[in-house]
Amino acid sequence: MRGSEMRRRAPEYRRQSRRRLPGWIWWLVGIFLVVGLMLFVLHHNQKEQFRPPVINKGSETEEVSPEIFNFTEELLSSTSFARQLADQMTLAKAYVILAKEHGNLQLAWELGSQIRNSQRLLSQGAVSGRAITQEEAHPIITRLAQLIYKAQDSHYDISTTMVTLKSHALALEERAKAAVVQTAEFGQLAAESLPKNIHCLTVKLTEEWLQNPKLRSRSEEHRNSTRLVDNNLYHFCVFSDNVLATSVVVNSTVSNANHPQQLVFHVVTDRINFGAMSTWFLINDFKGCTVEVHCIDEFSWLNAASSSLVRRLSEMETKGSSGGLKTQEREIKFHNPKFVSLLNHLRFYIPQILPNLEKVVFLDDDVVVQKDLTQLFSIELHGNVIGAVETCLESFHRYHKYLNFSQPIISSKIDPHTCGWAFGMNIFDLIAWRKANATSLYHYWQEQNADQLLWRTGTLPVGLLTFYGLMEPLDRRWHVLGLGYDVDIDDRLIESAAVVHYNGNMKPWLKLAIHRYKSIWERHVNFSHPHVRECMFH
Known about the structure:
By secondary structure, the protein is of the alpha/beta class. The chain is built from 22 helices and 11 strands.
């Protein structure tokens, strides 16, 4: 019984036979495969049509997009036609010079013509942003090559070319040096010249001084003021022949002072500008401060016997055989730094000018004050005579930059690596000055430099020697320099400065002033004054 049941179930465990798919299904699959293959081929052809062009370089390939074509790289590429044109053009220019020197004007003209064609083609390539093709460059390259070979056949060989080009380079270098010197001289001349507007103001103020005796009486009364010798007040001195510049110095100082009534200014000018300077400070009020004006001719002690500088200037004047020459030399004396201005050198006679004072701040006439300067008087100078801002950065503006250390009298007494400093805003301890007898040191160095072998011109070199070992460094923010020549001074440094200095030829009252800094100075000019308006300052 059991055996028969197993024989009946056996067919359930047998492997089923495979069933074949109908033929129509195979036809349908084949059609789909053919259609898919056709779509793939069509799509592949469309991609190839829009693929960017490929340039083969050896075994490497790189894609070039017209949108990012760089003509500068084309010029630098050693395989480009633009580079070949540029190289041939440079060589052709050299042969143009040689051909002209040898009188071969026809060859020079032909070379020049092809150079212009090369320049035109390169310009077109740069403007259109495309590479120069062989068809465009071949005619010019071929013609230039023929002309260069022709020049070489004319014995314009490479050695001749090198010698000629070297002589031209030396000549150009000499011309460049001469141009630099000439530019410096013209710049100095422009800086020294008095603009017609300031001259107009000076003339009108002088006229008012001569026509109004009350002004002269008031000037004499001011000289008897006890404020001029009161050491409890804050004293400043300015030596200048520029009325407007001096006015800006005074106005900017009192405008930033917490107590302007406690400020006293001692102004010294020359005989020509004395009336105008006196009138200006008598008819204008500067917030209650006191302004005293002196003429340099009043200082009888400043004579040839006491000062070698005055002696040299006097000798220069007496050499003139005519009055016109004497007048001309007198103008040189006051305006040309080459012959030294006495006004510039009055800073070395401050104790004689102000014999009753103990401390004074010296200000140049090309500065603008932006902070209260009365804090300077409380700075401890530690027995030194002068407080100044140092100007040395690394090796720049050290003593060896100003003085001739090949002279034993300098090298034996002075350290060439001593840090330099700046005139223009300085605090002087006149008690320490008199104790050190600094004016005598000034006279000593002036005598030693009679032949101008120690330094050339200016007041800073002799100042560095006079106050050597007697200078107290001040914080840099007290005095920021360079507004008369440096166009890249940091705005933050200017804003933080107590005093900004227009040292250099680009003075703020001149047309050649740096426009970026001019407004700092102009904000302290009284454009509402009738004389200023009439002279068209605004």
